[in-house]
Specification:
The protein is mainly α. The chain is about 75% helix and about 5% strand. Helix 9 packs across helix 12. About 45% of the residues are buried. One of its GO terms (biological process) is cobalamin biosynthetic process.
């Protein structure tokens, strides 16, 4: 990539962030909803573990069963992700320069969720401050999958903090990373990969094998962004505690990418997150992440502030790279 193109991508990245800050996510006809419908349509017709196909799957020999479903899942993943990304690449390559720039910015806007993250998490802090625990539980249940019906205020605050820290990577930094690597198509691909993991990456009978490729490819796409996010959280808060928690706690977390992000973030904030949580009626023993006291309402706002500082750090770094590219790229 030439110095000029690197500088241009830096400017387009800042533009995409500004568009997201002003407009947020589309309230109607969100392209991600249409993609989700497309992916669900594919899965219903291809997944051998889906109810409509179980009779066919039952005739597959046992030693081949999981491999057949994995192949079906990988093929479906390609069929869902490749066409929209390839279409965007082709469109960018065949439109005037100004329109191509606008498409890059639009793709990053589509992939980002910074304003949406604040819009979902900030009201939880407000409800906790107002001592409206039932409303805080309901708001938090929109962003996490655990059962919070009996959770106290500290558990609700902890769930909101975990969501803010983890989604900082999924909704912001992963998209910025892949935009820096491959422009609008890179950001679009990241968002679609992340979405398919959220749809198919479950360890249930229906998705255990079918969603295997979606889960592994999401892990791969998030590997570098997650560690850069964890480093950013450390640099924007309590550096020593964040690095210590990252080093000693992240490996015990179920997700190889969420572990570093949340351990570093919780350590940077000086709060203790993680711990046992109720999922689908079963208590899951999760390790503790971070250090310090249990979370309180104010810590939810501190988590959002940490994400914002990290985003500012990323934008400053990208801007410096763009300036250096202009000065020294030729």
């Amino acid at each position: 990539m030439s110095g000029l193109s690197m500088a241009l991508m830096g400017a387009l990245c800042v533009a995409g962030v500004l568009v997201d800050a002003v407009l947020g996510e589309p309230s109607r006809a969100h392209p991600l909803v249409m993609f989700g419908q497309w992916a669900a349509w594919i899965e219903r017709r291809v997944n051998p573990a889906h109810g409509a196909h179980r009779d066919v799957a039952a005739r597959v020999p046992g030693n081949m069963h999981s491999s057949v479903i994995r192949i079906a899942g990988a093929t479906s993943w390609l069929g869902a992700v490749v066409p929209p990304v390839a279409a965007l690449i082709a469109l960018i390559d065949h439109v005037p320069f100004a329109l191509a720039c606008a498409l890059h910015v639009a793709a990053l806007w589509f992939a980002l969720g910074a304003r949406s993250l604040v819009d979902h998490i900030a009201p939880i802090e407000h409800a906790l401050h107002a001592n409206d625990l039932s409303h805080a539980r309901a708001l938090t249940s929109r962003v996490v999958t655990r059962d919070l019906s009996q959770a106290d205020a500290s558990a609700v605050a902890g769930a909101a903090i975990e969501s803010a820290l983890e989604n900082g990577n999924d909704a912001i930094f992963g998209a910025l990373f892949w935009f820096a690597v491959a422009g609008g198509p890179g950001a679009l691909a990241f968002r679609l990969v992340n979405t398919l993991d959220a749809m198919w990456g479950y360890r249930t009978p229906r998705f255990q094998y079918f969603g295997w490729a979606a889960a592994r490819l999401d892990d791969l796409a998030n590997y570098a962004p997650a560690r850069l996010t964890a480093l950013s959280y450390a640099l924007c808060g309590n550096l020593r505690a964040a690095l210590a928690c990252w080093r000693t706690q992240a490996h015990a977390w179920d997700s190889p990418n969420a572990g570093p992000v949340m351990a570093s973030g919780a350590g940077s904030l000086g709060v203790s997150c993680g711990g046992p949580a109720l999922y689908h009626g079963a208590l899951e023993a999760r390790p503790t992440l971070g250090c310090g006291p249990a979370p309180r309402a104010a810590d939810v706002g501190r988590a959002l502030a940490l994400v914002k500082r990290a985003m500012t750090l990323w934008l400053a770094a990208l801007s410096l790279i763009a300036v250096a590219a202009i000065l020294f790229g030729r």
